[in-house]
Amino acid sequence: MAEIGYGQCRQQVTTMVSRILDKYKRPNPFPNNIPGKDWWYAFLRRHPEITLRTPPPALEACRAKACTPKAISSWYIDYEQFLLRNNLIDPPQKIWNCDESGFSLCPKSGKVLAASGTKIVYYTTSSKGQITVLACVNAVGGSIPPIYIFPGVRFSYNPMEGCVDGSYFGKSENDWITQELFNGWLEKHFVCHIPPERPVCLLLDGHGSHIDLDNSKFCKENGILLYCLPPPIHLILHSHLA
């Protein structure tokens, strides 16, 4: 996981173990199927090739220092080695990059036209908040239809009216992408719209919704290799800047 930019902390590892135990109904001595400290340290002893490393400081504290030419060059060297090991340097059509951006449906109002002398001017806005759009492009500029994520559960209108043909629809309480939505996009949309040649590389940021036990298994079975753009480098290299 760390090799592709997804270093896991103790809580993430034990949560994943708990999900495996829940899914396969394996007998175990752990309260609520959650391993404790003793299991954790025994796990580290059984796997001496794994070490605990201190991650960089919080993003806001290290952003300016981390986005240096040296840091970016180092990331590219590691990324190139990853592509070479997996025979993904050529053709570039097999390298994909996905990222989500939020778009306000109720932008801050500016000045509006009104008759001279009018004391009160009314301005009608939408109360729908914002939507999130996850787009995905490849290294030669090809793309697949995006996923639109709308806030809410029920709609009195057709939220997909006017959207790009073939787009994927998602909804969440706060319009943010969730693990369930990302997994659905990956399994029902991304894999159906890309060419059949495998493997492919999918670049993404390190958001917690982007990787879990289920999509790791799905990606392995379908020749999709995930690779992380770490913070804060993803802020200047990610596709949303295009």
From TrEMBL:
<dbReference type="Pfam" id="PF03184">
    <property type="entry name" value="DDE_1"/>
</dbReference>
<dbReference type="InterPro" id="IPR036397">
    <property type="entry name" value="RNaseH_sf"/>
</dbReference>
<dbReference type="InterPro" id="IPR050863">
    <property type="entry name" value="CenT-Element_Derived"/>
</dbReference>
<dbReference type="GO" id="GO:0005634">
    <property type="term" value="C:nucleus"/>
</dbReference>
<feature type="domain" description="DDE-1">
    <location>
        <begin position="130"/>
        <end position="234"/>
    </location>
</feature>
<dbReference type="InterPro" id="IPR004875">
    <property type="entry name" value="DDE_SF_endonuclease_dom"/>
</dbReference>
<dbReference type="GO" id="GO:0003677">
    <property type="term" value="F:DNA binding"/>
</dbReference>
<protein>
    <recommendedName>
        <fullName>DDE-1 domain-containing protein</fullName>
    </recommendedName>
</protein>
